[in-house]
């Protein structure tokens, strides 16, 4: 039986009842299927956030709601400015939530894939390698499809603790690699190395899988063995030499203070230099001991000051610009004394992040993301620790204990242009 003839329609003309085809990769939209019948305004609103102007649909499978026909009807009553503002706010909130849900769906899918490939790395190394390649290719394709991207803070409940670190490092490494001008082939090698950099930890006892300052010297030595285990597993999976170097060198340092080989400077591969930096940043934000966690702003400051000698200078400069002075997840006080949490940063405008501002007049689930680029009279005054927040502000902003990042189209949150 042949597929019914498909036609195209502008997304602005979508109506409930149309049977549509989403011609995008599985990580590029939040729907469980690529083809389905529209049955709610929310689905239409979500499609309009995907950055496409036209979409395929099947007339034969569609039974759209009829368009309203005006036959001698009286003109509609004018809508008040207050109602227009409410309608605008609802539309912006819908777009904002749809963009966040898409990022979280992509992150969750990546986490599940990582967990599956980890479970079969020893028993089915070929299958595990193939799954790694597909996962990294999908993430790169999504990233390369965006002319300009922003780093997005996600809800901390997504994914699981065992996969969060590796997926965070994968996302940050690919973003940094792209910002450093890497080509697609190098991004693929970097992505594989970043995704699998800690694969050797599954050979360690559970209590030694997270670095801890309280480790004894013997425990520290055992923990560091995860690099050797990772190289062995990587060879078993027949990874490329570039990906193996990432695994082997992700704890090496530019000043020679790293391990296991105490390599320095040019002895460390360019891809491993990127991975070492993103791995350190995420470990500071999401350490094994939650009590030792640093805010994203503190982590960036620590890398720039106390740990500066450990990283390639040029790579670190690009990373700091990419993350912004106040990376997503940072809690800040603004120039008007209000409190806010940074949720998105565009590297081309690092001093103008997007944030959620505490406003007791607006329920937190209805708070719009505010773009500081559109607020000429508003800026960030300082970063603060969550414990410094008044209780009601802490409950409203809900700073993350575990930081998770993905990327999104830079313009997807651009609607939040006021603080009212």
TrEMBL record:
Going by the entry's taxonomy, the superkingdom of the source organism is recorded as: Bacteria
Check the record and name the InterPro entries matching this protein.
DUF3391, HD/PDEase_dom, HD_GYP_dom, HDIG_dom
Residue intervals passing through the bilayer:
none
Classification via Gene3D superfamilies: Hypothetical protein af1432
Q: Name one GO molecular function term.
A: phosphoric diester hydrolase activity
Q: Any idea where the HD-GYP domain is?
A: 140-335
Q: Which CDD domains match?
A: HDc
Signal sequence annotation = none
Disordered as annotated region, ranges: 56-84
Under SUPFAM superfamilies, the record lists: HD-domain/PDEase-like
NCBIfam families associated with the record = HDIG (TIGR00277)
Name of the molecule in the record: DUF3391 domain-containing protein
Q: Name its species.
A: Candidatus Propionivibrio dominans
Q: What is the lineage of its organism?
A: Bacteria, Pseudomonadati, Pseudomonadota, Betaproteobacteria, Rhodocyclales
């Amino acid at each position: 039986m042949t597929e019914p003839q498909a036609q195209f329609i502008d997304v602005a003309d979508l109506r409930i009842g149309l049977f549509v085809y989403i011609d995008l990769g599985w990580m590029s939209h939040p729907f469980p299927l690529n083809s389905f019948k529209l049955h709610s305004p929310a689905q239409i609103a979500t499609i309009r956030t995907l950055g496409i102007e036209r979409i395929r649909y099947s007339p034969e499978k569609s039974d759209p709601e009829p368009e309203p026909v005006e036959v001698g009807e009286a003109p509609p009553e004018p809508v008040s400015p207050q109602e227009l503002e409410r309608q605008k706010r609802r539309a912006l909130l819908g777009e904002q939530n749809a963009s966040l849900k898409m990022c979280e769906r992509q992150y969750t899918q990546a986490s599940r894939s990582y967990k599956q490939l980890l479970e079969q790395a020893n028993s089915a190394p070929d299958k595990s390698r193939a799954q790694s390649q597909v996962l990294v290719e999908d993430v790169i394709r999504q990233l390369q499809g965006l002319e300009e991207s922003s780093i997005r803070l996600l809800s901390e409940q997504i994914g699981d603790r065992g996969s969060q670190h590796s997926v965070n490092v994968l996302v940050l490494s690919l973003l940094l690699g792209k910002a450093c001008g890497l080509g697609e082939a190098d991004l693929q090698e970097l992505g594989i190395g970043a995704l699998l950099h800690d694969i050797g930890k599954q050979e360690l006892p559970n209590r030694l899988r997270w670095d801890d300052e309280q480790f004894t010297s013997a425990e520290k030595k055992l923990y560091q063995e995860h690099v050797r285990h990772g190289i062995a597993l990587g060879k078993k999976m027949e990874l490329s030499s570039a990906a193996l170097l990432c695994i082997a060198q992700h704890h090496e340092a530019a000043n020679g203070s790293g391990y296991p080989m105490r390599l320095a400077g040019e002895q460390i591969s360019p891809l491993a230099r990127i991975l070492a930096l993103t791995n350190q940043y995420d470990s500071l934000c999401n350490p094994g001991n939650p009590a030792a966690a640093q805010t994203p702003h503190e982590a960036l400051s620590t890398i720039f000051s106390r740990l500066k000698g450990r990283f390639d200078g040029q790579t670190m400069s690009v990373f700091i610009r990419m993350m912004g002075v106040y990376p997503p997840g940072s809690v800040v006080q603004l120039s008007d004394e209000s409190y806010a949490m940074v949720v998105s940063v565009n590297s081309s405008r690092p001093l103008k992040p997007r944030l959620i501002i505490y406003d007791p007049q607006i329920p937190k689930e209805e708070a719009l993301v505010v773009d500081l680029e559109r607020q000429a009279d508003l800026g960030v005054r300082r970063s603060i620790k969550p414990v410094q927040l008044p209780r009601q502000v802490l409950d409203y902003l809900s700073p993350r204990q575990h930081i998770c990042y993905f990327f999104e189209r830079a313009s997807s949150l651009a609607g939040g242009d006021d603080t009212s």
